[in-house]
Structure formats: C-alpha cells, structure tokens
Fold each of these.
Amino acid sequence: MALAPTSFLHPLWAFGVPIAASFPLGWMMARSLDPKEAKAGKGLDALPMFLCRLIGRKTPVKMSWKDYCIALLAFNAALFVITFTLFYVQQHLPLNPDTKGSLGALGYKDSAGVQHDGVDTGVVFNTVCSFVTNTNLQHYSGEQHLSYFSQLACILWLMFVTPACGLCAMLAVLRGLRGDSHMGDFYVDLMRTVLFVFLPFCFVIATLLIASGVPMTFDAAAKATPLDGVAAKMEAQTICRGPVAAIIAIKQSGTNGGGFFGPNSAHPFENPTPWTNLLSVASIVALPMASMVMAGKMLRNARHAAVLYGVMLTLLITGTSIAIWAETAPSAATHGLPVVAEPNMEGKETRVGPVASATWAGMTSGTSNGSVNSMHDSLNPLAGMIPMSHMMLNVVFSGIGAGFENLFIYVIVAVFLAGLMVGRTPEYLGKKVEAREVKLAMLVMLIHPVLILAGAALFAAQPFGAKTVANPGSHGFSEILYEFTSAAANNGSGFEGLGDNTPAWNVATGIVLLLGRFPALVLPIALAGFLAAKKRVPETTGTLRTDNLTFAGMLIGTVLLVGALSFMPAVVLGPVADHLVALK
Amino acid sequence: MSVDTEIKAPKRSTEDARSLKLHRRHARTLKLFDPAMVRMATIRSFAMLDPRNMMRNPVMFLVEVGTVLTAIVTVQSILSHQAVGLILYQAALTFLLFITVIFANFAEALAEARGKAQADSLRATRQDTEAFRLFRLGSDEGETISSTKLRTGDYVAIEAGQVIPADGEVVAGIASVDESAITGESAPVIREAGGDHSGVTGGTRVLSDRIVIEVTAEPGQSFLDRMIALVEGAIRHKTPNEIALTIVLAAFSLIFLIVTAALYPMAKYFELTLDIPTLIALLVCLIPTTIGALLAAIGIAGMDRALMANIIAKSGKAVELAGDIDTLLLDKTGTITIGNRKATQFVALGGATPRDVARVAGLASMADPTPEGKSILELARQDAAVDGEVPHRSTFVEFTAQTRMSGVNLPEGTRLRKGAPDTVAKYITELGGVVPDGYQSTVDAIASRGATPLAVAEDNRLLGVVKLEDILKPGISERFQRLRQMGLRVVMVTGDNPLTAKAIAQQAGVDDFIAQATPEAKLAYIRKEQGEGKLVAMMGDGTNDAPALAQADIGVAMNSGTQAAKEAGNMVDLDSDPTKLIEVVEIGKQLLMTRGALTTFSIANDLAKYFAVIPAMFIATLPGLRVLDIMGLATRGGASSAILAAVIFNAIIIPLLIPIALKGVTYRPVGAGALLRRNLLYYGLGGVIAPFIGIKLIDLMIDPLMTMVGIG
C-alpha cells in the first residue's frame, strides 16, 4: 500500500486548525478567567461566585502565593482521599449493575507469571495517583474493573478538575509575573476554569463528535447476531457503547487521555471518521495552545508570549515531522526481509494510516494527553523515540498550565545564562533573577530527570522490572524507560508490552506520578511569588530582551541541551540502540 | 625651636620614590603568566587540595572525590592482579582527574597571585615611617613617634620631602604631593586645607611646603590596608551572582551525577558491568568543570582589573554591581567639559567695535586671577587689542559678591568694568548711560547656547559682551553614545543655570541634567531614580557629596577628595579621574559576561563528550552504537582511548581558558541583543564544536601511545 500524497494534508490541518482556534479561544480565556476587577462577579461571572457561596466562601480571597499553593494542594489531597475511598468501596456504592468488586481486590500476576488474588491496594493507589495528576496512566481496565459510579464520580470528575487545577496554577504564575500583589482566589479560579473553559469547549466538541457518529447513549450494550456467527463460533456479539462522545471530548481537550474503550481512539466508536480524527487531534492541543495566547493577554506582553508559544510550536512541529518521516519508512521489523517496502502499518488502523497515526503520536506526547490512535510500541524505533523525547523535554505544550510552568522554569535558567552573557544581573520581565529564584528553578528542573532515570535504572536492574518486559534487549529497556517517562511527565500513554499491574510498578509509578506533578505545579507559583515581590527594573538597551528571535533560539537551545544531556545515555541504550540493532 | 630642627623625618631618597613608582606601574601591567607568579601558584594549587578548602566549590570537590575513588579502585586492581592494560588505564585516569583538580586550583591561585602582586605594590607604600605628632592643633610643638602609634584624631605635621605617615585630612596649609607610589602617575597634585582636595593617603610624599593633617584611619585600617586584605582573599565573599551561578552549577552536577549513577544499573540490564573509574571519568567530563575551575579566578580577576584601572573597590560585590548600573551622574566640570570656561568671542553693541570690547575687557581682566579672567586677557592679546601693562597708578576693583563686577580705574579716571549682564546694565543706567539696543537679546542668545555672557562697560557706556564658553572634552559625546548603547543614562550635574545647563547637555549628548545642583538636589535625584528601580552611580569628592555617594548604588570617591566622601562611597579612584565611572561599569559587565560565556561553553562541551564516551562504554555489548562514534575515535587503542581523550580535553581546556578568565571576554558596547548573539556564537556554538575537534586531535595523538603500552 503506497501512501497517497493527500495523506500529508492531515498534519497541516491538524496543526492549522488548533493554531487558528487558539487566538479567539485564548482571548476568551483571558477575559473570562481574569476579568477586570470591576467586572468580576457581574454577568456570567456571577455563576462561579454563586457556586463559591454554596461551598461557604463568601467573597473572593486575595491569596498570597503560599495561600494559593496550600489551597491547591489541599484540594488535591482531598481529591486523593475521596477517590481512593470510592474506588476501594465501589462494591457498596450504587450504579454498579455488574456488581464489580473493590478495585483493591483486582489481584495481579507477578513477574514470574503467578496470579496473586486478594486485596492489593497498589492498583488503587496507582489509579488514584494517575487520575489526580491529570495523567490517566491505566494499570487496570476501565470497562472490566470500574463501576459506573466510579467512572462518573471519580474518573470523569477528575478529568475535568485536574486540568482545571493546572490552568489555575498557570493563572497564579501569570499574576505573579505581572507583578500583582496577590495571586487571586484558587476556588474562584477553579470554578471559572471548569465553567468557562472546559464545560463549554467539551460541549462543542461532544456535539460535533455525536454529529460524526460517535455514540452518546445510556442504553445497555447492543446485541448483534453475526452473519457468519456459526463459522466464527460467535453466536451473538456484544457491542459496547455508552456516553462515549462526552468522555472523548474531555479526554482529548483536558490533556487526559484515558479512553472509554481499551484501544482508545483507535476504536471506531471513539474515532469513527477522518473528521473525528482531525477534531480529536486538534482538540488535544487547542486548549494548551490557547493558554499561551491567554498568557500574552494577561501579561500584556504578546511578544514574549509569542516567543514561548513559538518555542513550544517549533518543538512540536519538528518532533512530529520526524515521527511522520520515520513512520512512512517500512517497519523496522521487516528490515532485510524479502517483503515489499511499505510504510510501517504495524499496530495501526488501516483507516487512519501511518501519517495521521504519527501526527497523533507526536501531539499526544507533546501535550501530556496520552490518548492514542495507534500502538506506540509498534512505532519504528526512531518514531517511538519522538513521544519519549517530547515527554522527556516536558515543555512541548505539555499539560494545560503545567507545560507553561515547565517552560517558565527553563526560561528562568535561559534568562540567567543569557543575562550573564550580556553583562547584567539577569532579569525576567523586569524582575531580577537571583540566587533564591535560581535555586527553586534548578530544583524543579532536577526532579524530572531524577524521577525518570532513577526509576528506569532501578527497574532495569531488578527482576521486578526487568522480568516484566515483553521484549528482550533495547526494546524491553525502552518499555521500562517509556513507562517512567510517561509517569513523570504526567502523560499517561503507555508503550505497552509491559506487565505493569504489579505492586512494584503500581507503587513506583504512583510515587513518580505524584512527584512529577505537584512540585512542578506548586514551586513555579512560589517562584512567581518571589518575582512579584521584587522591585521592577526599568528596561534599557542593555537589558536582555525576552521577546525576540535571539531569545527564542536561546530558549530552544537550553531546552534541547538540558534534555539531551540528561537523557542521551538512556535514549541511546533504548530506542537508538533498538533502531541500530534493527538495521543490522 | 623651629619645627624644622625638631623633626628627623625619614627623607626618602628620590631613588627610593622612583623605585616605588616603578613597582606600582609594574604591578599594573603584569604579564599573564609571569614566571614568578606561576611558580607561586603551582605550589599553592597543591596546598589548596585540602578538602575543607575544596568544599567551597561543589563542582571541583566532586572531581576531587572522584579522583580519590578512582585511585582506590586502581589500588584494588593492582592488589587483585588485574590485567596490566586495565591497571595502566585506571592509573592514567586517576592522574588525569588529579591534574584536572590541580589545574582548577592553579587558575584560582594564579588569579590570587596577581591580586597579591597588586597588593604588595600597594603595601610597599605602607612602610613604617616616623611621624611628628603635634600636641595640639595650632601648636608647633610635638614629638616624633612611629607611624604605627598614630591614632584617629592625631595631628601630624609634614614637611617637604617627607612621607605622609597615615591617611588623613589636611587641616592647615597647602602642599604639592607626589602620589605616584599609589597611582603610578608622576604629576604632583595639590592638597590643601578646606575644600574638596584635602584628603591625603599614607605613603605618599609631600614635595613642597608644610601641611598639618588630622589622622583619619587607625593603623591597619586605612583604605589601602582594606584593599590589600580584599585582594588577598582574606575577606573575599562570594558575590550574589556568583552564589546564584554556583547553585546552577551544583544543580547541573547533581543531574549528571544521577545520569552517570543510573548508567550502572541500566548497563546491568544489558548484562554489562561498567568499570567504576570509567563512570567517574564520564561524570567529570559532564559536570561543568571548566567554569567550576575558573569561577573563583574570574571573580578575583575582576577585582584585579579594577585595581589595574587604579580603582579600589571596597568589595567584589561593588564591582559586580557596577555592571547593572542604569544611570550615571557625572559632574559637568572636569568630566564633560575641560576644567574652566574660556572667552571665545567679543560681541560689540551700540556702535562700539569688537576691538573696543576686547581692549576694555582685556584691561579690566589684567588683575583678575580667575581662569576666566586669564582667558579673556589671552583672547584680547590674540586680537592685539591690549599689550603690555595697565597704565601706571591704575587701581583695581576686585570682584565681590555684592558688586558682582570687577575691573580697573585708569589714572585719567576712566572706569572699566566687566560683570554679570544685569548688574552691569544697572550700573551704567545709574551713571546716566543707556543700554544699547539688542543688548538683552544678545545676552539671551549667548546664554541659550550654553555660554556665559559677561558685559563690558567703559564709564557709562556699555560696549558689548564677552562670550565665555564651556569647552567639551574631546570625544566625550562619542563616549556617551557608547554608554547609551550599553543601556546607561547619563545625567550631567552642574551648578549652572538651567538654560546654560540645557545647552551644554545638548551639545554633549547627555540624557538629562541637574542644573544649579545642590547636594540635596543630587540626593533627591538619586532617590527618584532608585524609586523607579534604577541603579545609580556617581562620582564625588567633597564632604557635601557624602550623602549622595552613600545613597548611590555605586559611589566612587576621588582619592583627592575628603575623608567623608571616601568613607561614604564604595569605591575610591586613585587617579581622581571623573571619567573612571565608565570604566567601572565596563569592568562590572565584563565580569558577569565572562562567567556567563564560560558557563555556556562548559555545558555546550558536554555534547561532544557524550559522543566520545557513550559509544566507547557500550560498544562491547551493543556493537551497533559504533555509528554514534562520529569522531571515529577508538580505532586502535579501543574504547579507552576515546574516554582518555575526553578526559584529557576536559582537563587541558582549563589552563587554555585561564587567559580569558583573567582578562575577561571582550566587551563591546553594542546593545544586549548583539552581545548575546555574539557570545552565543562564540561560546555556545563554539562550545559545541570545539571539543569535537579537540577530542579527535588528542585521540590521534594518544592512540598509538596506548597501543604501545597495551591499554585498551
């Protein structure tokens, strides 16, 4: 099957649509999430205020960075405890027609292949960590192990509020960078982000999906009688369905990624047509992109925000292009075999094809989404390296808000080095970057590689990790590396092939998920708080500009160099060696 | 008993003074690798291996720990009778890592030695001398004591030819002083009681006349003493930017520590046990040793450069801060214009000729001792309007604050006057004269061009106006242009009226001016600028400058200035050169740039080292990785030659960059964007490319050698 040249139009649309949409969306986000003081609480904005009163908060509080962080962490801690409890006791709760047991009673197969039944809180811990951190890494199977109540009250609820938490953190950072005296009210922000961003956006997407044929029903699964039922030894076929469109909408647009069906967006009910494929892939990046436009509006510095947006976009387009290029090559597995050389179709839907699959792979890994429309394990090694690299860099849009915060950390480091090189104490947006800020930024920067490398090293060297891989050699190592990278980047996509529902994997990735999420969410707020408290330094021709191409280059250089230096050995041992071995 | 006979002051021979001066000059123009200093630094770099000392520098401390570990592994290998090739390889690594630490220490020691040479040249002026201490001010009686016994508040009399025994302030007399021992400049300077040129420095020599000074610094507490201590590192603290950079470097080291540590278990997955010394070698290659080794040297060299420019900074922090300055307050006189105003034109009015004006103005200025008066006479003589002497029996009328005029009364009774335009106009009107047409407009025209008009009258006839102009220093506007490109605002401070000040400000191209400046006005201006978040530098000499000097972020006091001014500022300029501020700013910027550039270089280097070391480490288990060996290393000597080449490159880049660390990267006033692009190109891109070439060359050299001894 040769590739139709028109299939290359897909990535153009997949980038063009969300980029075009990001400007009006970002403008609306800035207006609704950061209203002028006089307009706050008026008109539509009365709704979040009303909801706030319902939970006993009368007027918006002017939170300091500390208060904001505490509120955010406390809210997430509460989410953690409640969700954990609900999963654990789901058998006693309503909306459980299939009488599914506690998620803790799932049991697991150990690395030797022995089935262990009985109470295992590991998977509950992992699942809660995964959804509270906006990751959706799944070590269980939703349709088999979760009751409807758990799906709705835990999974769907978290799919809305966790990206909202990321966006709230971004709002706080932006207010700090703008020099506001306070960071706003976390609870008001949370209400606004859910009400004004995620709900309306998902409503539109879901409607479009339904129009394209994605099921949206509360009816039970359909029963069908196959035509050749007897021959196929399948008398009747059960076709799962449900409120799919609603879940797909938030799954795609909230950088969530946990699908309704096991095969995620490769399933025809999640992604039935070329249009839904385009819509889904566009809504992966639309809100992360729009948040960068919002940043420009809020900072009243569109040029600087354009630099940040441009850097993210450059990295995403470059990475995705490489993935497309690598995927249109024949499957590495067939190298040297006497077969017709065709684009790599292993693990792909024929209706999606290699170009659209690679485009999706690039975008879902850049943003910390993690939904898939093909199996990443079957990507050619170099294409498989792209999702991994995107997650290792962790600044290619990444999670809503979280990606901005990660890039902000790199900006501080780049500003520091570049500032010294122009002979001044480094300044960022008129604020001096000194030892305290640098310390925080480097701390955040350290966490990501430490989580990935320490985790991968431990699991590669120990039987509880090394014995769970499905392939030998470098490919197996890539599976371990990918799992930890996905967890640390709060992405949630899996390389698969890994027997990851074991206590060791559940606990380790659970911890990595938490450590990958919260310090990187909260510390940048503190950093912005430090900067906000400083005196503004006037800009002169001797000041380093952060809103031009030179700085954009410096920033990309910093991101790539730090990324390459931190991960090159691991990537060389994994996908690179995999690729080279395959070529032999 | 006269004072002369009483004092047996140590008269230093001229020879002695000459040698001192040369000593100071020599210290200011030191060669980079002066043999004596290299010797001293080498010895010191071994003494600095003490872990307690190394701990101050986290990056190099890590290298030292790595060296010890490698040495231990090597000894183990010897004890367990490993292959000779392996033992040699490990021993070579131990040696190279050790050399890396030594190179780092050498860089710091060399910078310290240079600072010490500067300090020694200053200390040479601090010899113990005898001093004649007066029992009380005003009396001529006193006693001869050692200068070390002098205390603050003591009065000391110094005669011509004697050395001033301590820092102090002239309270009586006027003298010319040879300060060459400190500044290296031979022209003597005048120091007198009162006014802003009353400060004297211990160790300088009175050339003529006699002065009495009040001692202002205890022995060992003088500026020179503090400076000596500072450059010798006794009280050298890390500056704020240095601390921040150390954090960045430590964090990078930590990342690389984890990267290398993780490789060991990862290799286990591939059933490969990595050699510990090789892992340590990789770690040392990756952590930013280049900047880590040179960081301290860069800081010391910054102070050193300031001292070479004859500026004594009270702290390293002050030098660093200078790079951040936004606003410079410069005095008009002496900085922007050459000392005094000069007569440049005679403008005739009401039927008089310019020659008339020149004659009258010239005669009226004959007894005027002020520089302006002299310049009028000079111009009149050039026009041949006056010659020789004033007629006999003329009487001179001196300038007083009341009359605001001066002049001469000729024997026949003619009264010649010059003075401020309004005063002269009033004077002739009182005598029945008429102010000629166009007088006011001429006066205003001159004033609005930044010049000072001086009216000239003969009896009740107003003849015309003399134009006195400020002469800008040559090249000053170009200099300000440079400053503007550096992002600095230049503010001119002058006692002139706003009209004149504005005109001169325009001519010189400054951004703003403070006219009719009082000390309070200066202080208010500095506070206003600081309120906007700007950092302000100023230079001053008088006691009334002290509050402003203290308020300014960088206050440079002139060495000739009063003690109060020197106390208030955070730098002292030994040359008392008002344009020094510009140099101070450049030194500060250069200091930060050098740090930034070498950090970028150091980290950019790592890419090539990965390409050298990673394939070499895993080539045995994953032969496919040979493709990554893009430098084509490890041809005959096997994997070890690539690793050794990377470590050797990592070590020798330190001494190779010592010149850049000590001299600083070139600063050009071209604006931040251009500077960044330039440094990114040289130190960023250059830092990526240079090691590829360097490591390949080293590999070519050591490969045959290694095959010979059987490593690899």
Amino acid sequence: MAENINIEVSPVSRVEGHGDLVLDVKDRKVEKLIFRIPESPRFFEAMLVGKNWDEPSHITSRICGICSVAHTYASIKATEAAFGIVPNDMILNLRKLIFHHEIVQSNALHVYFLAAPDLFGVGSVIPLVETHPEVVNIALRVKKMANDMVRIIGGRAVHPIRTVAGGFTKLPAEEEMHIMRDMLRGAYPDLEKSLDVLKTLKIPDFERETEYISLSHPEDYANYDGNIKSTDGWEIRPSEYLTKIKEKVVKHSTAKHCWAERDAYMVGALSRFNNNYEKLSNNAKSYADELGLKAPCYNSYMINIAQFVEIIHSVDDSLRIIEELLDEGMDEERRMVEINPGAGRGVGAVEAPRGLLIHDYTYNEAGRIEKANLIIPTNMNYGNIERDMQKLVPGIIDKTEDEIRLACEMMIRAYDPCISCSTHFLKVRLINK
Amino acid sequence: MSKPKVGIFGFTGCGGCQLEILNLEDQLLDLVAAIDLVHFTEAITEHSDNYDIALVEGAITTRHGVERIEKIGKIAKIIVAIGSCAVNGGLNCLKNLYGTAKAKELVYGDKKDWIDSIDVKPVDAYVKVDYYARGCPPNRFEIVDIIRSLIVGRKPEIPNYPVCVECKRNGNTCVFELGMTCLGPVTRAGCNSRCPNSGSGCDGCRGLIDEPNVNAQKDLLKKYGLTVEDMVDRFNLYNACREKNIAEKVTGGN
C-alpha cells in the first residue's frame, strides 16, 4: 500500500512519440497527475503558408506516418471543399477502401503490438514470439494484408502517392482488385482466431462516462465522411467545427487540450462505436457481442476491443466496396475530376484511426494557402486521459506503486496516443485571457 | 559483428521510418532474431543505454534534441540515419525557410518564449553518421540491407545514379511527357522510382546524387517550358536544410 507516491515514467513506451506520466500522491491524495507532452513542436501551419494547392496533402501526410492516409484525405477534402470539387462515385469508393485499411493497419498495430503485451503481462511483443508465436504471426499477417491494400491503392503503405485532390494519379488494375478481394477473404480465419485469444484476456474494469465525439453518416460507419456528432446530443457540419470545439494551452504540454460541452471529451474507436454502432456490419456486431462490448460503453480500456471490432467491420465493408467497383469497372476516364483553383476556404473532416481529424485551409486567388488550421485527435483526448486517470488512481490507491504505474500506463496506451501528430502545432488562441 | 546491440531512436518527424521497420512483416522476426534490440520506445518498454548501432529517425529541432543526439554519438559505434528528416532535415526544413522566429510567433503568439525550437538540422550536423537510409519514407529493404551488411561486415550498396535509371527500367512514360515536374534526373535512386511508377513526379526525397547532370536538367527545363523556381520549390520540400545553393546545383546556374 502506498501513502506517498512519486511516479515519473519518461517516456511512456509503446505509444507513438514522446509523452511523460507524472503522478504525485501525498497521504493517499492525488496531488499531481499529468500526462506531459515534451515532444518537439513542428510548425506545420507555418510550413503550409504560401504552398500551391497540390502540395498540402503531401506535406501534411508527413505529420504522421501511422495515419498518413487520414491526413492526406483531411487535406484533400479541405482543398476540394475550398474549390467546390465533387469527386465521382468510383473515386469515393476507392478512397473509402484505402481509408479502411489505414484503420485496419493502425488498429492492428495497436491491439496486437502495443496494447496486447500488457494483457499478457510482458514488456513488448518480442517475448510473445517465444510464448505465443501464433498470435504474433496472425498480427503480422493482418497488418501485412492492410498495408498491402494501402500499397495497391495508394502506391505505398506510408505516405501514399496516388491519392491527390481531384482523384488518383493511377488506378489499381482489375487484376489487383481480385487480388485484394482474395486477401480480404483470406483474413477471416486469422480474425476468428484473434477473437478466441481476445476472449481469454482480461480487460481491466473501469467506468467513467464522458462526452464521445465522432463523425456520423446516414449510410456508413463513418470514416471518410460525415457530420460531427456528440453523445451529448448535438450534430454539426464539419465547416461549423469552431462553434463546438474549443482549444486551450496547458503549461505542461506542447500539445493543446480540447473541450466541447464539458471540460473534456473522447474521440477514436470507442467514440465511433458509441455513436455509430447501428452502422457496423452484422458480423462486426456479433464480434462485439462475443467480446462483451455494448454501446454505449464507458470503459476506456475497451477502446482496444472497439479497435478490433472495427477491423472486422472494415474487412466486411471492403469486400462490399470491391464488389461495387468490380461491377462498375475501373474507368480511366473517371480517374480525375477537373480542378479550378481559386480563392476560398474549405474544411475537411475525417476519422483518423485515433479519431476526428480536421484540416481547415484558406486559399488565395492563385490557389496558394493563406492560412491553415489543423485539429488533431490526440489533442482532443489528452484532457480525457488525465480525467480518466484522476478517477482511476483513488480507486486503486491500495495497490503497489508498480501496479498503479502499470494501470496508468495501460490507460494512456489504451487511447493509442499519437504524439507526433498532436505536437505538429500549438496555436495560442488566447481563450484564457 | 556477431549479434549487435541495436537502439532505435526517434527525433522530430512523423514516426513513419520506425513504422516502415515494423512494416517489414515478412522479415521482421528474422531481423529481430539477428540483432539484440535494446532500445525502441515505440514498441518496447525495456530499454538500455548500452548499444553498438543506433538507428536514428527524425531531424534535430530542439536544444533537448541536441543533448540527446550528442549522448547517442558518445555511446554508439555506428550511427545510421534513417529517412529524409534524419538524413537531410527533410520536410521540417520548411520551417527554416519560413523563419524559425517568425514561425514561433505565428504559431505560439506571445507564448513563443516557452517553446524549445531551434533551426532544423540533419543528424550529421551534430554527430558522425556512418550510413544513410534515404527517402520519405525510406525503403525498408534498404534498411534491412544496411543492417545485414553491418552484421556480415560488408559495405552496403547505396546507388549513386539518378531515379531515371530505375524509372526507365520500369518502363514508365516520362512524367515530363505527362505535363508534370520531376526531380528524377538529379535525385539518387534506390526507391525503385516509386513515385513515377504511380503516375507522379519525383519529389527528390532521397536527395541529390553526388554529381548531378546539370546540363541534362537544363535541357529538360527548357524543353518543357519550366522555370528554375518550379524545380527549386519542389526540391525544397525535402532538401531545404542541406542544399543552400540548390538552384545553382540543379540547374548549373541558368
């Protein structure tokens, strides 16, 4: 039992980028509990000023290697909205397809490689090579399948090439569509085995209801497109994001914290699940059922389970999209729509693997960027992560320091924070003044 | 070197190079078995300050970063810079072009003095770099080749010819013919001309070859009615830190 605790984990491992956990307990009371972000800021808003309209998607994809497709499309959608471009169905279907597989890749990386070692009680995936080789091989195959999908559609797995404003610089060949279909069908046995393994692992108990925000779409389990929706009962168009989403600077972090209706909210897989459960494929719903995940779910540790359920949905929905594309055929004439650059403002919102992502660009007459604002999912989660830990720690204060440290680290990792993304900028809007 | 102790270290960048290592799916387990991976914060909780080879991702953009890379320089016997940010400063250097002080002002307003951010420099501005795995992202097979070479004690083969050679071999239509700008004629190969393969011009993410054929580049610019600025803007995307006199180098000063 710990009367006084001083925990400093610097850096927290198995998250993307550099974040530190600082926890001080005195006489069994939490005196300080912060998730400190000292990662170097990157100034993407400054880098974008003056750039020609065909460059921002390639530049901003470099905000994050893990979610480069999401940044690419938030950027492309902002540019297309500014110029009034409406892509055709074939382009939209291919975009949704590549989008699914960034989510599968990222969710698989997180569930199998970064979060699962905690559930097996080890420090990384490497000991699992010896003790659970089948799980490691499944993880590698699922990740490879998703990366190969992104490679076929985007030209490479990290920082896709073919995905541009107006459409694609190259289309997959019909033969490649068949290859993708076979790869997807081939993934099911591995996903079923993963389900069996996940069912044997104990996800920690925890409950704290918060505001859950994600995109929402009348037809799809929203990833690529939709309105911004909250479990607190509001829904807005992406272009209205500033009316709800506020940001502030906190002293211990080079990344900002965000709030909407309450003092903090959650974005990511669990928010999507809570808002859009009905739009999941039936197969994904039955996986959720088997894993005890029900909407609404208020246990942040269950984010990992929601991520796995999303993998199932993405594979199911990808097969549906490929059938549609095969029915209509790949039409070179429809590869690109016409682009007429000019002055205007456009907002692009997508669901990155870690949650809502917004790019907001203002272009001048020459089609060059005058002003850019980027809202990143991990920033939105920092406040919520701290509040979760503030509730968590008093409830486990009788455990050992090591156990408390691990519970907090696991909580941070459950959110799958992407720190490179979140520190790409830090704009002071002087809300506190 | 029998089973070298390897550390993987991230500085300012997108984490994509480390991800490309994890994306080695088919070879990852063999790679992990051939080395003793002692430090990889993105994937492993345990860590050690005793390593032979440091794989370094990202550019150096903070004073804290300078301290960290200098410490790595004292410990590692061999340093491999992986990815455009570590090799050339990469896209981060757009901040230098904009002006570091001005960028701080734009982004942080009156809180700018809180922020630790200095002019971006590549890793070899601070420590000796033994090998370079270029590109954004780097070619993951080139990273494996460099590690394999270090284990068996041979020199890794890094091409010193332009992307055009690979592009021709891949049978692509020249992207200049498609009405686009391309840096393939002066950029170091090793990526298998992946952007032209996808119907896109080369952005020069692997940096210049040692002796670019400036006459051929001048002829190309003239033939397709392009300006030096078209090329320089493009080249600055990944190389603004490294090549101060890039216009002169790419075009022979025309």
